[in-house]
Amino acid sequence: CSSSSTALLPASAIRLDRENISSVGRLRRLAEIHSLYLQQNQIEKIQNLDSFPNLRFLCLAGNRIQRVENLQALPHLSALDLSHNQIRVLDAEELPRSLQILDLTGNGCTRQEGYRDLVVAALPRLLQLDSQPIHGNAAEEEQAGGGSSSSEEEDEDEEELLPELRIPFTVDRDFFADLHRELAGRARRRRRKALEEHRERLEELRERRALLLGP
């Protein structure tokens, strides 16, 4: 990649897209790296990623990967893009339970019977699968319970999840556009719910005041 594009990324990110990489070798431990871009290479196997124990975002789109494996060493991984690989059968148990965003579009495994239900059951924190929001799982219920969250808290949540969303790079932009819309929609729904609850409390207080004061 060019030095100018690399300069746009934070120090916590490594960008190695379109470098004709065929495999990920053993590296020294790089605990400070949170994001790794390896899209559009020739990688056939997911391996040696335990060198990045604090990885939150991993893009392996457009490679030659046939199996989901060796990801359990990434306990903080929030977003995983494996779109347009050669994964025919998915072992959902190989996916880190920390995942909130997963993209497997363009793989044969998405046509497995019960594919979506299988993935959702295996990933309790999942918010989005293949650019489609997940409804009714533990993560969404937990978010719904936080109706009083402020907009600042929403922004912090988004920044923590994918800190590079504001930076130009070559991952499929539709994936991130959909993600932005989904996160923005969730924030609006929470704020609307909080406002409704506030109005209900005000109305309840008015009714009590009227009863106390009398006609």
TrEMBL record:
User: What keywords sit in the KW lines?
Assistant: Cell projection, Cilium, Leucine-rich repeat, Repeat
Instruction: Provide the protein's localization.
Output: Cell projection, Cilium
What SUPFAM superfamilies does the entry give?
L domain-like
Residue spans of biased composition, Acidic residues class: 151-162
Pfam family membership, one:
LRR_9
Task: Tell me where it mainly resides.
Answer: other
Please name the PROSITE patterns in this protein's record: LRR
Identify the stretch(es) annotated as Disordered: 138-163
User: Know the name of this protein?
Assistant: LRC46 protein
Species of origin: Struthidea cinerea
Per UniProt, what is the name of the gene that codes for the protein in this document? Lrrc46
